[in-house]
Each structure stands twice: as structure tokens, then as C-alpha cells.
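hey so i finally got around to running the thing on that chain from the lab meeting. sorry it took forever, my laptop kept dying and i had to restart like 3 times. anyway pasting the input first so we r on the same page abt which one it is
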Amino acid sequence: MFSETVIYSIVDSSYFFLQSLLFLQEIAVAFFVFSNKIYAKWLQNYIWSTDERNYIHQSEMKGDEEESKKAAPDTNGKELAAEIRKQVERQVNVAEKLAKFTPVMEFIEKNMDSLQELLAATEDEKDSEGEIPHFAVPGTTKTKSVYMADRLAELVTEFSKVRNVTQRDIFEAAVIEYLRKYGYRDAVDSLLR
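ok and heres what got predicted. didnt touch it at all, straight out
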């Protein structure tokens, strides 16, 4: 009658068809296509677990008396369906609220390294309140003449005396911080390594 390969192909296609029907039924249950009676029957052997925050099949329960006390009380199908709908609506509302923050989260993820450096710098400033940073800059020293307003020059001189720090250290720290802040962070960091 039928060859063995034909029978196997019929069985395989039938199995695939049945599997797809079961999958479609699960989708329909998830989107409230079936009646409340089917919901009740579908959830008949499930118990609400407060620890898992989900329904768990009774066979998976560990047999704890406490868990069975925490289980949801028996309700009819309509109440259960209404509760499920409420929970889904709450989850949709939460998802909509969180969707507003998606661009912010993407920005944070994209700029994570820079943000961590900024936060670390802020923490360093808190830890070193009033301390002047000292940098060991490699290379030979050169003389640079800088023209500035006489009042600013007086402030630098006074600051140098009060804080017991050289004017060279003040200007090196100021220039390094300035270059880092305005686009030369990588070049300065590679120089100081």
C-alpha cells in the first residue's frame, strides 16, 4: 500500500501540524481568545507563588505548607480572567511609562565610559577637597612666556605662596584640566601614562 517513507512523512507532517495547533492555542490563551471556562480549566492545576510572582504547576511545588497558605484562593473563571486582564493592563501601563525612558537609557549605555569617568572625577574632587592635583609630565622642560592681566598674575602669585605650591605646578594642572575638559582627554591621558 504505502511505502515506509510516505508513512514517516505523513506522521512527521501530522506531528508538526498538531504542534502548531498547540502553539496557536497557547497564543490564544495569552491574548484572551478563549472563554472563562477554558481559562479556569487551563489554570486548574496551577497555584500562585508569591516568591516566583507567577503561577506554578502543583507538580513543581515543593510541598511546603507555607506556600500552599500563600496560594491564591479558589475563584471562579470570570474573576480569574478579570484579574489576569487587570494584571496585563498594569504591565502594559508600566511598559508604556518605561518606553518614555528608552532614549535616555540608550544614551547612558552609549556613553557609559564617559559617564563613569565623570563620576569618578566628581568622587576624586570630593575626596581631595582643596588639594591641588600634581601631574608627573614626562619630557624636558621648556620656558613659556604667558601674557596675562596683572590682577590674574597677582592672584597666581598669592595662591602659590598661600598653598605652598610652585607656579609651574599651578599652570601645569590648569592646562591639563583645561585640555581634558575641551577635547584633548585622550591625548593628555596618553601623555601622562
